[in-house]
Structure prediction request, 340 residues.
Amino acid sequence: MNDRFLRACRRESVDRTPVWFMRQAGRYMPEYRALREKHTLLQLCRTPELAVEVTLQPIRALGVDAAILFSDLLLPLAPMGIPFDFVAGEGPQIETPLRSKADVDALRRFEPRQELATTLEAIRLLRRELQVPLIGFAGAPFTLASYAIEGGHSSNFAKTKGMMYGDPATWHRLAAQLADTVGEYLRAQVEAGAQALQVFDSWIGALDEADYREFVFPHVRAIFDGLVDLGVPLIHFGTGTGHLLAVQREAGGTVIGVDWRTPLDVGWSRAGEGVAVQGNLDPTLLFAPRERLLSRVDAVLAKAGGRDGHVFNLGHGILPHTPVENVKAVVEHVHATTAR
Prediction:
């Protein structure tokens, strides 16, 4: 197996910098669009053979050093009693958003090994196919709660913060239940064969450090503390988190994701010694002319400085309509430039 991704996550020496991309499977790939003409997004996520096929598409096309399970952050919400669907052009929509203590009290606990069994089966099937490590993942409490409370994506998270500030006891009960659910779901993914885990706190950059410490930190810390014994790399990722990198490191994770707004060397310094970093090319640069694109790739690599512990990635996921040939060019350029 090509294990350079795992080695870099452990801050061990590698023959070249490993590369993978958030949302490396998805709408920008023609193979994926062909499947979406026949199946809904949830059908792809909940049918093991289809999830396997979508996960493998970028492995075949790009030469990346890790696969990430094709799934969706919101899958654990439905068995909790928060049904959702995806609306074309609008993204995820929660049928009945959480707005009160009674709504939170009504949520149910569930066993992910039973109610998310199709996802775990996809992991088992993938391990038979892959020659690169498989990354499992889940959403962090703030990000999942924000979808559940707002009813979908939000630009200001006013309703979410309204619960945090106005009814902190209910907020902490919700966040604690989400942390328990996510932690057990991630553990089940490793039991099924995932070799690394990423916790996506995609929208956490909407908080300042004081709110993060009061409303988020204890729940994220509980997730990471509960996974340490598994011995797999634990990636902690958020966007717009330049001001939170130090406290994110404190909350947990052996690899800290740095988004494109913060220079990689600055982000690594804020995260501190003894941790690997992942990132951090701006996803929109994949639309740029090749010369500019690769010069910015070189700039990221220069800021990594050849240090052990760098995993090359974007600062967020690949965008729809991204040219596949540019994504592949980045992989080939990173591998060629950093060969040792």
Residues 4-338 form a domain with the TIM Barrel fold (CATH 3.20.20.210). Residues 168-192 form the longest helix (25 residues).
